[in-house]
Write the structure tokens for this entry.
Amino acid sequence: MGEHSTSNRLAVDQPTRGADRNRSLADQADPATDEMLLPSLSDGITLLDVEGGRGVPILQSLVLDHLLLHDGPAFWVDANGHATTTTLAQIAPSQRLLNRIHVARGFTAYQHYGAVCDLPTAVNQYIQASTADTGAVGRGGPGRDEDASPHTPALIVAPAVDAQYRADDTLGETHAKTLQARTLARLATYADGYDIPVLVTRNERNEFTEPVATVADHHLECEQTRMGPRIVGEDFETLVYPVDDGAYYQTTFAYWRQLLAARATQVGVEPTTPSPSTPTPEGVGTGVTADGETVAATADPLLDAWTATRSGGR
């Protein structure tokens, strides 16, 4: 396009603080190791607050970007459909990357808490299976964390960590707060025990979710602007992004998808074109979630809740 509309373009004389950290991938000597358009996730609990919506693509972009730079699987305790395979498949630069994401879905407070409690068992089962299968060993590449193992977790994700405890009518307020506190305590233990990031979000900011902010070691805030999402953290701030003609604009969902594809190439993961639809996985049958998503039914509804995203979940 020869011209950009004012809705997605900023004049060059606008403030560009932080733009040096957000240079184009093509202009960097080693883009896989520098801070990019997406903030890096440090060990400990990181709280991502998204203004104006659930921020599913934003959350998924952070997860995929972390997995591209670190070996090992991600274990995702889902609530309210954040682990939807539709957007994951659209934004993921490689379908193989999705095989490293294992999802448990909790539709009630007790299911969610149970999935969090079962996480060490799921991790142990994955380690046993991956170490027995030599073909499952991760492939290191430029920019990968050399100290990371392809067998141990690289990331734990718990979006809408307050959702089920807030919405469960069978729990009194005191019991709901207690169960949520136990969930947060276990997530903090996992972050410390595995020495990995734990990425969480919350549905609302109020007294009920103050413990989520209290337990978090890091805090990212995402503001939905008319020119795209803007993320602010302790050491990261998304403002504007340079393009070839010298103008500046803020990132969009499509631009993040291009970034992840370029990142994948840099770390040795061959980008693949997502298939238009996800085939029905093999299993003992299928079921429909509360969100209307068709998922595979498994023989063990508790421990087998942990599964790759392409195989659905509990």
User: Anything to note?
Assistant: The longest strand covers residues 218-225. The mean pLDDT is 74. The CA atoms of residues 94 and 271 lie 5 Å apart.
